[in-house]
Task: structure prediction
Amino acid sequence: MSVIKKTVIAVLGVVVIAFAAVSIYIYVAGGSGEATREVQARRVEPRQEEADDRTGREDDSDPQQPQPAPPRVYAAVPGRSEARFLIDEVLRGSPNTVTGRTDQVDGSLAVRLDPALIEIGEFEINLRTIATDDEMRDRTIRSMILETNRDEYEFSTFVPTSIEGVPETIELGATVNVQVKGDLTVRDVTRSVSFEMAIVLESEDEVRGSAGTSFTWDEFEISIPYVGGNSIVSAVDDTVRIEMDFLARAVDR
Result:
């Protein structure tokens, strides 16, 4: 056997061993994706002064004038809500959209019909439980991208700071479109983002909603490994889309 052949075989052997080692690391480090606890976001607490501002009522208003009812608080129903990410890639030479989903979502909101008031509470998502259509991709996400195999990175939170677009009144069954700005935390990075949110009060006891926003990986200091070169993934889009659907029911306050 020639020296060249021996060299080629040796190099291939090293590559195979390295690939196997990386695969084993990803598989082991990625873990099972099991949650350490249930999601539990802080419940919204409607501020009375905000309710007064919405009605235009002042302290010296007519005491005989009927006062508006307090807003009702609605909390996400466990297992009936979903958060997901969508990102475009080129996989084996063909365009592909990766979708990762989890139903481990908790959050709340306060709603009053007339005069209208909407206040959004904190939302918490368990990123460790996100699953795509490929187990090795999921393990890579947990071990090398979002690093949610680490307990301190398991959860993501969105803390609203403002809401725009609330109408004067809200009707049952009507869709209300608002813009909710707040602080989104992924791993140990917090950035201000704005969600487009649609809210439907289906009954006095139930609210459905959806929300979405987009940002780049760089904004949250996230990098995607193994793209290009000999990888089966030749390109990944810089922008990721985040979406959420939720079902919330009235709770006792």
Notes: The chain is about 20% helix and 40% strand.
